[in-house]
Automatic annotation (TrEMBL):
Protein name stated in the entry: ABC transporter, inner membrane subunit
Membrane topology: Multi-pass membrane protein
GO cellular component, one term: plasma membrane
Domain of life: Bacteria
Localization of this protein: Cell membrane
Keywords: Cell membrane, Membrane, Transmembrane, Transmembrane helix, Transport
UniProt domain ABC transmembrane type-1: residue ranges: 83-261
Listed Pfam families: BPD_transp_1 (PF00528)
Organism: Maritimibacter alkaliphilus HTCC2654
Chief location category: membrane
Upper taxonomic lineage: Bacteria, Pseudomonadati, Pseudomonadota, Alphaproteobacteria, Rhodobacterales
Alphabetical GO biological process terms: transmembrane transport
Bilayer-spanning residue ranges: 31-55, 91-114, 121-143, 149-171, 206-225, 245-266
Family the entry assigns: Belongs to the binding-protein-dependent transport system permease family.
Length: 281
């Protein structure tokens, strides 16, 4: 009688060793990545401190002073209040850009002739600096929240639109032909094959649009009725309070990083299932 237990153990051991090595490799990469981030951050902080000691606080504030001002502005409600105002403009403008950008992008990508007709106009608008439209937006919408939302919408719209249209237009032909061979209608083919296949491209556009929305929010708050984090930047800059200025800048950096990281995580999670027919050939 043949004892299969030893052979099964010998077969399972290489698999277990390979999995353990892969886990250790991922851990090493994660540790290296975090170590690099921490090292770069410390290098920047030391550089700020050195420049402050050489050139003075008017040129570069000390990181300690920046942290002190940031904590004080947070505890007295200045930063939370400004952050709430900025987030209102950012979120509403970004959501409006996401809805319109995805909708128009699906239309232009799903209808090739319409895409060719409107492509020059989309490229012309995308290549025009958003700041060029600010005087017109002020005339149409005023100086307050509505106008700022429009500025953010205009900034984030085109990356979302262009990525969506490109993803729809370049849908996997093998998938579409397979769906057609099973009798899928044009409507089902569009919504159940082409749009899901374009999801990674759509998510990439949303991530880029979110980063640009942060910039658009600050620009709107700098050029229109001063409020939010942009208003704090103007107030601190006009008084040459560089410690307060950099405290607000760090808040903006943290906000942009958090938004981009969240969307990148969603992009990885939701894009994993995309079928790559090239692997089968």
């Amino acid at each position: 009688m043949v004892d299969l237990s030893d052979s099964n153990t010998e077969t399972a051991r290489p698999i277990h060793d390979s999995t353990a090595r892969a886990a250790k490799a991922r851990t090493r990469k994660r540790v290296l990545l975090w170590s690099s981030w921490i090292g770069i951050t410390l290098l920047l902080l030391v550089s700020m401190e050195v420049l402050n000691a050489v050139a003075g606080k008017l040129v570069m504030p000390s990181p300690v002073d920046v942290v002190r001002e940031g904590v004080g502005m947070t505890l007295d409600g200045t930063i939370p209040r400004a952050l709430g105002q900025s987030l209102t403009v950012l979120v509403l403008g970004y959501l409006l850009a996401a809805v319109t950008g995805i909708g128009i992008g699906i239309f232009l990508g799903g209808l090739p002739f319409a895409g060719r007709v409107f492509d020059p106009f989309v490229n012309a608008m995308n290549s025009t600096p958003g700041a060029a439209f600010i005087p017109l937006i002020i005339v149409w919408f005023g100086l307050y929240t509505e106008a700022k939302i429009v500025v953010v919408w205009n900034a984030a719209l085109f990356p979302i639109l262009i990525n969506t249209a490109a993803g729809i237009a370049s849908a996997n032909r093998d998938l579409t032909e397979m769906a057609q061979s099973f009798g899928a209608g044009r409507w089902s083919l569009f919504w159940q094959v082409m749009v899901p296949d374009a999801l990674p491209s759509i998510l990439s556009g949303l991530r880029i649009g979110a980063a640009i929305s942060t910039v658009g929010t600050v620009i709107a708050e700098l050029t229109m009725a001063q409020s939010g984090l942009g208003g704090l930047l103007v107030a601190a800059g006009n008084r040459f309070q560089m410690d307060k200025y950099f405290a607000v800048v760090f808040v903006l950096m943290a906000l942009g990083t958090a938004i981009t990281a969240s969307l990148r995580y969603a992009e990885r999670r939701l894009g994993r299932w995309r079928v790559s027919m090239s692997e089968d050939h």
